[in-house]
TrEMBL record, chain A:
It comes from the Bacteria. Keywords: Transferase. GO terms for molecular function: acyltransferase activity, transferring groups other than amino-acyl groups. It comes from Roseovarius spongiae. This is N-acetyltransferase. Residues 15-172 form the N-acetyltransferase domain. InterPro entries: Acyl_CoA_acyltransferase, GNAT_dom, N-acetyltransferase.
From TrEMBL, chain B:
Keywords: Transferase. It comes from the Bacteria. This is N-acetyltransferase. Pfam families: Acetyltransf_3 (PF13302). It comes from Roseovarius spongiae.
Length: 177, 174
């Protein structure tokens, strides 16, 4: 068996979205082990666990053909966040997620990347609908979900995050896909 | 748009196939990971943690070029365990690890799988004279390590938990 990884490389005005590479690990670890920044995403207690998360995301890509992209800031080549489609065991359905790493907030990166990933999910993966799962006190993500046109649907219990709100995105046609 | 990232080779033994991962393997892997049998490998875990470990097992091959195989029992096609080389962050060096699932113990399968994985790693993955981390209370694994010719090297700590390091003999690369 060959572990095949799709290798989409998407671009936006300021970003490259690509499958994570080993050189991204330190940026991921810094984010995942920051309990404040990663609270709404699922923080990891230490580097070994964050490394496993990184490996897990690659496994997610291998198994599903999608996962979290590294968002690369074109100008510097640095990893500035993640966005992509996430659907692990126990998830209600595939979701569009996003996070921005320290030092890159306030530039509209999450919106720019998530919009592109959403279009890719509709156009290239052929998904018919997308959700985002957001913990209730993550006001920043709620605001972005709404700016992306997503609407609150219901609150449910997520296997990993506990109480979670499910937002539904506009479908492929509404997004021009 | 798709590139083969890493080939997980198939290794055959008289009774077993060491092979790559399929989504349908997850139930067997979760049954083990959620059970008391996983107490010597950091468990038991909940199903969510098992899923993470399952995916991370695949991602490990991507990052390292080697990893744990799924062990398939050839006669029945059932998943009998996992075996292979592990170098997670926090490990001192690459480790030969083995997990044998319920119903497949006591038949020499663990020896067969570990022996074949060790030989493959030495020949094709540049990993020879490797270690195994073993919990001091895991008598079955301690016995298997000795049967494989490994010897106690030192006490160590892995991810904050005490364990023993056993050193395997070099078995010869090509």
């Amino acid at each position: 068996m060959s572990l095949s990884l799709p290798s989409p490389r998407l671009t936006t005005e300021r970003l490259i979205l690509r499958v994570p590479e080993a050189r991204d690990i330190d940026a991921y670890v810094a984010f995942l082990t920051d309990p404040v920044r990663a609270e709404g995403f699922g923080a990891e207690p230490d580097r070994p666990k964050a490394w496993r998360w990184f490996a897990m995301n690659l496994g997610h890509w291998a198994l599903h053909g999608y996962g979290y992209f590294t968002m690369e800031w074109k100008e510097t080549g640095d990893a500035c966040g993640m966005t992509g489609i996430w659907n692990p065991e126990g998830w209600p359905e595939p979701e569009l997620g996003w996070v921005v790493f320290e030092g890159y907030e306030g530039r509209g990166i999450a919106r720019e990347g998530a919009e592109r990933a959403r279009r890719w999910a509709y156009e290239d993966l052929g998904l018919a609908t997308l959700t985002s799962n957001i913990v209730p006190d993550n006001a920043r993500s709620i605001a972005l979900a709404e700016r992306l046109g997503a609407r609150y649907e219901r609150t449910y219990r997520n296997v990993h995050m506990g109480e979670d709100m499910l937002y539904r995105h506009p479908g492929p046609e509404e997004c021009g896909a | 748009m798709t590139m083969p990232l890493v080939a997980i080779p198939v290794v055959e033994t008289p009774d077993l196939l060491l092979r790559g991962y399929r989504e349908s393997d997850f139930d067997a892997i979760a049954d083990f990971g959620c059970s008391e049998r996983a107490r010597f490998v950091g468990g038991p875990h909940d199903r969510w943690a098992c899923w993470r470990a399952f995916l991370a097992g695949m991602g490990h091959w991507v990052l390292r070029g080697y990893g744990m195989w799924v062990v398939e029992h050839r006669e029945t096609g059932r998943v009998a365990g996992r075996v292979g080389m592990i170098l997670n962050d926090g490990w001192h060096e690459p480790e030969l690890g083995w997990h044998i699932f319920d119903g497949f113990e006591g038949q020499g399968y663990a020896y067969q799988a570990a022996y074949a994985a060790r030989a493959y790693a030495a020949r094709h993955q540049g990993l020879d004279g490797v270690i195994s981390y073993i919990d001091a209370g895991n008598t079955r694994s301690l016995r298997l390590a000795e049967r494989l010719g490994a010897s106690f090297e030192r006490e160590a700590t892995l991810l904050g938990a005490p364990c023993r390091i056993y050193r395997h003999p070099t078995v010869g690369g090509a």
